[in-house]
Each structure stands twice: as C-alpha cells, then as structure tokens.
Design brief:
By secondary structure, the protein is an alpha+beta fold. It has eleven helices and 14 strands. The strands form five sheets. The protein has a three-stranded mixed beta sheet.
Amino acid sequence: MKKIIGYILLMTMVIIVIPFIIVKGCSTVVEDLIPMDEPEILEKNEVLYLDVYVASEGETKKMPLEEYLIGVVAAEMPAKFETEALKAQAVAARTYAYGRMKKIYASNNSDAHRGADVCTDSGHCQAWISRADAIKKWGEDSGKENWDKIKRAVNETENIIIWYENKVVNPLYHANSGGITENSENVWDGVEVPYLRSVKSKGEDASSEYEVVTTFKEEDFISAFKSELPDLKIEEENLLDQVEVLERTDSERVDRIKVGDVNLKGTDFRRILDLRSTNFIIEEEESGEIKITTIGYGHGVGMSQWGANHLAKEGKGFEEIIKHYYKEVELDNIKNIEENFENY
C-alpha cells in the first residue's frame, strides 16, 4: 500500500508540480506573447507597486507603478516628442508592466529578472532611467523641463491600460516600422495575435535614422555566420551570388533568406549581423564590401514610436494612436479591471 501511495505522489510531481515550476519562470518576448490560462491575481492596493530588477545596479527595487513609468517613458521615447505620443507610450508601458505584475504574461528565462516582475534591460523588457541619470543625459537646462513633461503625460493617463476581449494585451512596440508595421506571426512563427496586425504608419521618415547603411568586409560577413553555423558552406569569391532573399512579408520585410547552403529566417539574419530591422536590401560596394541598407528600426510589431509622434502632430489623441496600432482594443482603468478579474 505504501508503494502505491508513493507512486501516486511521484506521478503528481511529474505531471503537475514540475511543469508548473517551469512555466512560472521569467521570459523572452516570444514566450510572453500569449497570456497564461490562469493568471496570478494579486491583492489590490491603492498604490500598485512592482519589483524592478535594475540591471545597471544589479539589484531589485520596489517602485510605485506610476513612478516607474516616468523612467520608462523617459528611456523609451524622446522627450521632444508630442505630448499625446508620450501619453500613448505611457499607456503601452503601463499595460506591459501590469501584465507582468499580475503574472498574466510569464517567462521561462529565470535569470533575466532575478525574480522581479520586470527588468531594465531593453533587450528583454522595457528600458528605464532614473530621474538623476535622465537629467544628467539631457543637461541641467532642459532636463527638469523634460522630466516634468513626461511626468505629466504619465499622470494624465494614470491607471489606464489596454484591453482586448476581456484580457490585458501584450502591447509590443518599437522605434520605427519603416512605413508599415508587421504581423506578429511573421516575427514569431505560429504566434498570431489578433490585435498585433500590420497597419500603415506614416511620417516615420522624419527620423534621421529611418534609412541606415551598414557595411561589412567579406571575411567579417562570413565569420559572423560561421560563428553560429560552423558547417556553413560559403566562400568569399562571388559572395553575393551565395546570398539570396527567398521571400518577403507583405510589409516588405525579409521573411526567408539563403546564405550559402542554409535557409534562414530574416529575423535570424538580422540578429546575426545586428541589423536595425529585417526590411533591408543587400548590395556590393565597388570596394568589394557588402552594403546592407535597412529601413526602420526594431521588430516592427505593435506601436511605432515615430509613427505615434506623427499621428500626434496630426492632432490625434493618445487613445486614437493606441487604437491605430493595436486593432480592436479598448482602454480602461486598472481599478475597473481589478473589480472584474473574475472574468478571466
């Protein structure tokens, strides 16, 4: 009888407990796209706090959500942008943080946050900067004015987050889409999110870095790929004849590309060469170097920050901006959502 009970306990650990531990880790953006079936519901407080792993300091700090957001907007979007664009960024950043505070979007990368809700590494979560560092970066003359401008944008959208079909969204955003944003599944295979659809995004060429040229020596180009694909068959002679764009998405980003004898995702090609986007063309310079021209900056999914600023300049409010980039969403106050969490 004891053996039977022991066997039952062992199987319970294998089937239920171990997978639960694995799922509860921290994550990459790919794993974060889809909400968990049973989000963790935390106790409601008048002031919402979250644990932030400050990567530059190597420690976790507890911060009021709204104060944390000022540092996020200051780090993520130029202070010179229009106020309504800053408000849209504040709403997107608040929604991102709230989804992770409530464990609606979880992750498997347990080291990234050191157990905190979010980290300040922009390669994994949202960027963040302290008031002192922001003012130092901007200069004393304009620093305080910039900080106060961003603080007002956060305060005037206090507690507002983005909602889709009774669920908190995962509001991805990027710097510049190059004129049209991307469908989520074209960046992360098989992850089709209904509100992360491709839309036109005007005015992004106002950025001085809208179009960027990067050059590579042939040996450096080959070395970059062989460091990850050691068995890759490719030669310096007639190098561009061995590189071919096979397929582009509807937004003109490279979906599949052949390098030597290997077919790659455009996103992998971008990562290996550290390019600004997957919207690129490849040419050969007279010097023999490889010239790659990229359009836009970032993965292209969700809200374009430069596009948001253009819409704000056209007189659009932050809600209109949000609803342009996230399809069929609604905005609501956290307090209202907290009262209706039983709908999850």
